[in-house]
Amino acid sequence: MSSGFSGLQNNIGRNLLCGPGSSGDGWRGGSHPSLVSFKRPSQSTFFLCKKPQNHSLSVLRSLVASSFGQTHANLPSDSAQALDNLPRKELKGFSLCNNQQRQGEQRHSPLNSLSPFLGSPGWCFSTGSHVERAWAHWNKVGKPKLIIAPMFDNSELPFRLLCRRYGAEAGYTPMLNARIFSESEKYRSEEFTTCKEDRPLFVQFCANDPDILFEAARRVEPYCDYVDINLGCPQNIARRGNYGAFLMDNLPLVKALVQKLALNLNVPVSCKIRVFPNLQDTINYAKMLEEAGCSLLAVHGRTRDEKDGKKFRADWDAIKAVKAALKIPVLGNGNIRHMGDVLGCLEETNVDGVLSAESLLENPALFAGFCTAEWVEGSKEKYKDGNLDQADLIIEYLKLCEEYPVPWRMIQSHVYKILGEWFKIHPHIREDLNKQSELTFEFLYDMVNRLKVMDGRIPLYVKDDQVRRTSATW
After folding, report:
1. Could you tell me which residue, 311 or 2, shows the higher pLDDT?
2. What does the DSSP assignment read for 245-306?
3. What is the distance, to the nearest Å, from the Cα of residue 174 to the centroid of all Cα atoms in its chain?
4. How does pLDDT run across 14-33, given as a tens digit for each residue?
5. Cα dihedral sign for 438, 440, 443, 449?
6. Looking at beta carbons, which pairs linking 466-470 to residues 24 or more positions away fall under 8 Å?
7. Lowest CB count within 10 Å: 54, 67, 141, 204, which one?
8. CA-closest candidate to residue 27, choices 131, 139, 128
9. What is the secondary structure of 311-329 as a DSSP string?
10. What is the Cα–Cα distance from 321 to 445, expressed in whole angstroms?
11. Dist. CA 118–CA 27, nearest whole Å
12. Does residue 195 have an active-site annotation?
């Protein structure tokens, strides 16, 4: 028998393991009257799955062929003949999908080993419309409302876990360079780490080549809930590399990036964008992404030129307009400095969740309702000492770093951010930190203890009547 297929099985629904979709968004176990399955030696079982829309036999043959890295012409003759012999009325309304799931929680398998299902028609070919599947997946991961934004070198695993301890319900990895990620084992092992508690998880890539992006994305899909495309980075490094927000000048390429992942991955693709100066351009952009296969869109309410978050306010009206125009889940990003902003953004824009970045770096307990003194002074609401300070948080973070090692540059960055107010009072301790050619945990723990002895506490505050909310209580 030819390599590739081991023959098309006409026994309907037999050997069904987990149904279509990358995350169980379909049938689980048993059989289904609208399935025809076939296998290949790599242990993947694929199904022609009943769907509302119709597909021609030639389209199905091409899809099947592509799942095995074959062209239509090279499709094994026995399998091609088997497809040809299927009754035409039986083919009406079928499309291709596969049964690969995260069986046995594959998130712990080595990143450098290629999963057997990679390169096969993926998530977008499972049952239901694109919008229905987008919402089914969003519901499945718990509809998180409080989300750690992607931050270059700053939203790594220990920081994500710290934020999750204090209310964050999902998180993005730092932006990863797709080309380097696909080529360098060292880069992969150092820049991307996760664990079983680190879900739901968005893994974000920057890229300007669909094939390179897919090559990187397929390595992480067993370990995440979304693969995200960075379309919003406004920094000069993104300009030089031609990625992030600078792809707003090349929308056909953006569409190709989204389609490549949507048609091939077994997890949904999400995108994070900035707005255009013209609102209608932003809406058209968002609709194009949705139509290309994006299953969740995060909208930063600033333009590409509005880099300074403290100088430029995010445009929540633009976020609201995008949310109203799209059918998939939409997240809002910008002006999220404390829980009052979280509630305000959710109410004003009707988004499905919010992202925080810079404010979360200074106060990782933001999503648990803790706020710094600057938001308490002059407030009409009553606040009290939350029995937590940023020195406590940095110690928690350092312990997580000992458990889940990350590059020292990331650790040092968080120390500066979280202890920023303390360093303003005691700049000589910051200078001691600056002088270290090689950091150690021993030095950092000792530094925090020195700050505590000198200054006592700089507390974080909570409202007198605060009630901690979760995605189940919104």
Report:
1. 311
2. GGGGG-HHHHHHHHHHHHHH-SS-EEEEEE--SSHHHHHHHHHHHHHHTEEEEEEESS-TT-
3. 10
4. 222 233 333 333 322 223 33
5. positive
6. 466/369, 468/167, 468/368, 468/369, 470/167, 470/169
7. 54
8. 128
9. TS---HHHHHHHHHH-SS-
10. 47
11. 21
12. no
Cβ atoms of 404 and 422 closer than 8 Å: no
* Reported pTM: 0.75
Q: How far lies 451's CA from each of 240, 298, 394, 423, 455, in Å?
A: 41, 38, 12, 9, 6
Query: What six digits make up the tokens of 379?
Result: 């407030």
Give the other-Cβ count within 10 Å of 321's Cβ.
Answer: 19
If we measure between CA atoms, which residue out of 94, 99, 96, 98 comes closest to residue 52?
Answer: 94
Query: 333-392, pLDDT tens digit by residue?
Result: 999 999 999 999 999 999 999 999 999 999 999 999 999 988 888 776 888 989 999 999
Record the tokens describing residue 65, joined without a space: 């062929």
Give the chain's end-to-end CA distance (angstroms, integer).
57
Locus of tokens 């084992």: 185
CA angle 339, 344, 348 (to 5 degrees): 155
Return the SS3 of 202: strand
Residues in the chain: 474
Q: Of 41, 85, 40, which Cα lies nearest the Cα of 64?
A: 40
Residue type, 94: F
The maximal CA–CA distance of the chain, rounded, in angstroms, is 82
**List 49, 163, 233, 294, catalytic entry:** 233
Tokens of 325: 């125009």
Rounded (10°) angle between helices 316-325 and 279-292:
40
For the purposes of burial, counting CB atoms within 10 Å of the CB of 382, is it exposed (0-12), middle (13-18) or buried (19 or more)?
Answer: exposed
- Distance, CA of 198 to CA of 182 (rounded, Å): 22
Structure tokens at 355: 């992202």
Rounded to the nearest 10 degrees, what angle do helices 441-455 and 390-403 cross at? 170
d(CA 445, CA 459): 19
pLDDT in tens, 275-286: 999 999 999 999
Q: How many Cβ atoms are within 10 Å of 69's Cβ, its own excluded?
A: 10
Residues near 340 by Cβ (< 8 Å), separated by ≥ 6?
Answer: 375
The C-alpha torsion from 449 through 453 and 454 to 459, rounded to 10°, is 80
Q: How far does Cα 48 stand from its chain's mean position? A: 29
Tokens 């809406």 sit on residue = 283
Specify which residues 76 forms β-bridges with. none
Q: What is the DSSP string of 216-237?
A: HHHHHGGG-SEEEEEE---SHH
